[in-house]
Amino acid sequence: MNPGKLVGFGIIIVVAVLALAQCAYVVQPGERGVLVTLGKVEEQARPEGFGTKIPFASHLVRITVRQQTQILESECYSSDLQQVNVTLRVLYRIPETMIVKVYKDYAGDPFESLIAPRVQEALKEVTALQSAEQIVRKREDVKNKTLLAAKEKIGDLLFIEDLVVENITLSKELESAIEAKMVQEQEAAKSRFTQQKAQIEAETAKIKAQGEADAIRIRGLALSETPGLIQLQIVEKWDGRAPLVIGGGGSGGSATNLILPIGNSNALLPPQSK
Q: What's the domain range around 255?
């Protein structure tokens, strides 16, 4: 065969192989494809899986729809004009319905062109309304307000799932001043707790003493009004042994009688002579 024909046949084979390779594409899981044909963007995003396109005239741009994470650093100023450096972790994703619009209308990385500027703007607006001390103490509140403001600014183009405040950095002097103030407040709170505890203990002791005094007064009143109450209490506490009654030696039978347990009577009797 003529060498020229062999070369031409080889070129045809190579072109055919390249054309076949250009006809097919694969969109991986978690991605969607934007098909561009001679500069025109197809309005519907291509789903994951295998597909075909026009060779040499079309190319496929793959865009992830998974949740992504980016670190964002921002320099802000508080309401008391203190510089505050905040490091955020931004969790976001591109909704499938907005893939083609984002690709057509916004150049470059969607995070850099859409999310980062708006999150920084929202964060600066929130921190400008609070002192540096409040920003440090209420970082969760700062995060929630920034997230809400950023979502309003971005709209439905992209979804910001969450913001995580990783670090808040102040000047060394400001950090020392805030730390000293927090220590003073903790000491004051501890002192208030000690005072409240002592006051409660004093009130408890007073109530207990008052209760004991009332009980004694009521008991004395009951004894004066009911003289037989003592005899009743002796009977109630009797252990079942026969008592020993010792009569008084007074005249007229008016002497007081003592009721003693028989087990103790021997100790009161005079010793017998042997």
A: 229-264
